Amino acid sequence: MKGIFFTEFLEMIEKEYDLILTEKIISDLGTGNNGVYEATADYPYSQFVELCNLLSSEVKSSVPDVAKNFGEYLFSRLVILFRPSFAGNSSIFDFLDQIDEFIHNKIQERFTPVEIPRFRVVKINDSTFQMSYQTEKLLIDLAIGLFMGCQRFFNEELTLNTEFISEKNKLVCFTLSKNEVLV
Fold first, then answer.
1. Rounded CA gap, 148 and 151, in Å?
2. How far apart are CA 26 and CA 10, in angstroms?
3. How do the pLDDT tens digits run along the chain, 183 residues long?
4. Nearest residue to 145 via CA among 25, 52, 47
5. Running DSSP on this structure, what letter comes out for residue 105?
6. CB 182 within 8 A of CB 156
7. Cα separation of 66 and 177, whole Å?
8. Residue 107: which of 55, 138, 146, 165 has the closest Cα?
9. How far is Cα 100 from Cα 50, in angstroms, rounded to an integer?
10. What is the DSSP string of 21-86?
11. What CA–CA distances, in Å, run from 69 to 115, 123, 165?
């Protein structure tokens, strides 16, 4: 798992809570790197799970809620880091239609070598869009948070349905349906 997830996660804790909590979580983390992560380096997925568990315990929130909150925060950071990639997209569906290209071209340029799951996207009609990919369970909640951040950025309301196509293969399908524009 790329270090950007770790650096942004720790930054989120510091911004949303405080430096003291960030330092406590780092000290409780059972790794030898003392919370020092490089955005372009690779780290075990288990460390990310441990960070989510530690924050969950400290703030008395469920691990899925921590992951969703982080996903929403991460989307806002990706907008800042990759602003030109968001230009020209007038809606969530315009953006999501290009997400596989965005991730594989833009992010892999910056964070090579990286294994990022391929997204399969299908526009069902003007108001329904499906996206499927393989991922770990906790990252499904992070993806939901990313969709929440995307919804906020484009000021569009979505209904999101999550369906596990294959538990064994960790394949998930998200169906997003547009509602009315938020005021």
1. 5
2. 9
3. 888 899 999 999 999 999 999 999 999 987 767 788 998 888 888 899 999 999 999 999 999 999 999 999 999 998 888 777 777 777 888 888 777 666 656 666 666 655 556 678 888 988 898 988 877 776 889 989 998 998 999 888 889 998 888 777 778 899 999 875 444
4. 52
5. I
6. yes
7. 24
8. 146
9. 28
10. HHHHHHHHS-STTTT---TTSB--HHHHHHHHHHHHHHHT--HHHHHHHHHHHHHHHHHHHTHHHH
11. 24, 27, 24
Which two tokens mark 33? 């790197």
Q: Decide if 148 contacts 176 (C-beta within 8 A).
A: no
The one-letter amino acid code at 160 reads L
Is-cis flag, bond preceding 84, omega within 30? Answer: no
**Tens digit of pLDDT for each residue in 76-107?**
998 888 777 777 777 888 888 777 666 656 66
